[in-house]
DNA sequence: TGGGGTTAT
DNA sequence: ATAACCC
């Protein structure tokens, strides 16, 4: 079950937008209102789903790759590949050995650095925002655009004979996907298909999953998704991560953290906003529970925040120090440890100079008002795991 | 299973 | 801080 949208995740018509060209694009709800004004209020939402996005970026960067079976590799995984590779049996998220076995001619490029993909991704979003500012991103390669207003304006300009000649094609729902956890719980209830979900007792489902999830997924099972398209705007967080077989000393951790932080600071610098919170995330080695992560976060001291726009050199050391404190808060370094992932996240982004001091807003915004200013310390205590 | 993201609790 | 979801 697709969580966010009822729109097709992988395109109705089968093989992934092959006919459409590069992008899968499907109107998600149509049928303009009858002249009488009856019927449900129609929305026009276009779902733009770019296929094998990373591979396409690579082929644009290096046109010699076009026409060859191409895979994008992260660690020992082929995370995506172009159509040539797919024809030869390569699948998304296939491991490199299997992929090479299936397709010995496969050309692999390393895609662990997401910079160019991220840049191209935002170019796509910005392009769509020219049609309507209401564009919601989902990952790097999907966008939902609410074109309702645009379509209504155009319809008003049409003559009536043109209007009657107009056909609006609908929407195809496919029955697949359910998030992993919810899928397991539904399966325990005997629900394994969309039809099962449609016909299942609402009351029992609400009791099992909570009213919010239950009502939403059951509506989705009928292809009904009234959730608004929420403009994504600029990102709420920046993070960089690296996974590896083994990292087991403080020195290694520090080196990795420095690398991650350096890239992050460049990104944040370009963005222009200032992060007010920093977080360190780790994954410990374990045979089971592979996806579980732990994190610690704390506020970024204001004197560091102020230096952020300028040269990053003077902030890197104090920030690494903070991250190492967070690290030691999570991991007892006197004991042996084995990490398989490190990630640094900068979040709680604020446009600088939004200090509304002196404006009326300053006194009207609770978080800025004097009463909660005295609560500043308790905020810090809640947010931080470090003694100051 | 990568290297990202978001929202809810 | 974590858990769940998305790609």
Automatic annotation (TrEMBL):
<dbReference type="GO" id="GO:0003684">
    <property type="term" value="F:damaged DNA binding"/>
</dbReference>
<feature type="region of interest" description="Disordered">
    <location>
        <begin position="1"/>
        <end position="37"/>
    </location>
</feature>
<dbReference type="GO" id="GO:0003887">
    <property type="term" value="F:DNA-directed DNA polymerase activity"/>
</dbReference>
<keyword id="KW-0237">DNA synthesis</keyword>
<dbReference type="GO" id="GO:0006281">
    <property type="term" value="P:DNA repair"/>
</dbReference>
<feature type="domain" description="UmuC">
    <location>
        <begin position="45"/>
        <end position="154"/>
    </location>
</feature>
<dbReference type="GO" id="GO:0019985">
    <property type="term" value="P:translesion synthesis"/>
</dbReference>
<keyword id="KW-0808">Transferase</keyword>
<protein>
    <submittedName>
        <fullName>DNA polymerase iota</fullName>
    </submittedName>
</protein>
<feature type="compositionally biased region" description="Low complexity">
    <location>
        <begin position="20"/>
        <end position="35"/>
    </location>
</feature>
């Amino acid at each position: 079950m697709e969580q966010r949208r009822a729109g097709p995740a992988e395109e109705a018509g089968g093989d992934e937008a092959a006919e459409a060209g590069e992008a899968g694009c499907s109107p998600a709800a149509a049928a303009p209102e009858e002249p009488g004004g009856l019927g449900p209020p129609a929305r026009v939402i276009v779902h733009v789903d770019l296929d094998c996005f990373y591979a396409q970026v690579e082929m644009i960067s290096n046109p010699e790759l076009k026409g060859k079976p191409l895979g994008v590799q992260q660690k020992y995984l082929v995370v995506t590949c172009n159509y040539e590779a797919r024809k030869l049996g390569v699948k998304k998220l296939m491991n490199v050995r299997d992929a090479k076995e299936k397709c010995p001619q496969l050309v692999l490029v390393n895609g662990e650095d997401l910079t160019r993909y991220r840049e191209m991704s935002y170019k796509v979003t910005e392009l769509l925002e020219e049609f309507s500012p209401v564009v919601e991103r989902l990952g790097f390669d999907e966008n939902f655009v609410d074109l309702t207003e645009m379509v209504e304006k155009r319809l008003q300009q049409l003559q009536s004979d043109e209007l009657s000649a107009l056909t609006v094609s609908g929407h195809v729902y496919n029955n697949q996907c359910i998030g992993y956890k919810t899928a397991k719980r539904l399966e325990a209830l005997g629900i394994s298909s969309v039809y099962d979900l449609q016909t299942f007792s609402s009351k029992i489902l609400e009791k099992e999953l909570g009213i919010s999830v239950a009502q939403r997924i059951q509506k989705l099972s009928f292809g009904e998704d009234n959730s608004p398209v929420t403009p994504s705007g600029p990102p709420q967080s920046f993070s960089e991560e690296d996974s590896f077989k083994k990292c087991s000393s403080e020195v290694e951790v520090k080196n990795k953290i420095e690398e991650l932080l350096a890239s992050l600071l460049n990104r944040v610098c370009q963005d222009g906003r200032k992060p007010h919170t920093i977080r360190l995330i780790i994954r410990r080695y374990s045979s089971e529970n592979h996806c579980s992560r732990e994190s610690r976060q704390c506020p970024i001291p204001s004197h560091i925040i102020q230096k952020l726009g300028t040269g990053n050199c003077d902030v890197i050391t104090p920030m690494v120090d903070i991250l190492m404190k967070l690290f030691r808060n999570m991991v007892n370094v006197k004991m042996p440890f084995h990490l398989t992932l490190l990630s640094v996240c900068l979040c709680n982004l604020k446009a600088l100079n939004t200090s509304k001091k002196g404006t009326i807003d300053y006194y009207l915004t609770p978080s800025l008002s004097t009463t909660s200013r005295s609560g500043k310390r308790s905020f810090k205590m809640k947010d931080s795991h470090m003694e100051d």
